[in-house]
Amino acid sequence: MRKVRLLVLNGPNLGFIGVRQPEIYGHRTIEDLPELVAEMLGPDAASLELQFHQANSEGHCIDRLEQAWKDGLDGIVLNAGAYTHTSLALADCLAWIGIPCVEVHISNIFARTDEPLRHKSLIGRNCIGCIAGFGLTGYALAVLALWRHITDNPNFM
Is the pTM of this model over 0.85? Predict the structure, then answer.
């Protein structure tokens, strides 16, 4: 079986996961993700290739999603940050590229009652699922979900 190739894409203000507001986002960094994934997937982790990208601008996020399509990647783990709630452009890009995507949020966006705008996701309708509130573990859960979604497909070779 060939490797499952996934993009982990972080949007604005997510370049400092583990440093920025640790009381909300925790202390683990994105560099810890491969270890978490290996713990969850065990030996199957060897059948996975993770690519990482972070961009603070909407256009750069879209450029990277389009590159994932050009490269034939199998799936996307996307934490669009604040663009989750505001970017029709990201939503439109996810719709046309058609790559299975899991939306991730480090914090539980639905528990942030002081900011009701954060309860709405414009990108969610173009994702196969959403994981929120589990810190960096949410990324590992998203990778696991995508890996299973992809490898359970009889057309995957």
Answer: yes
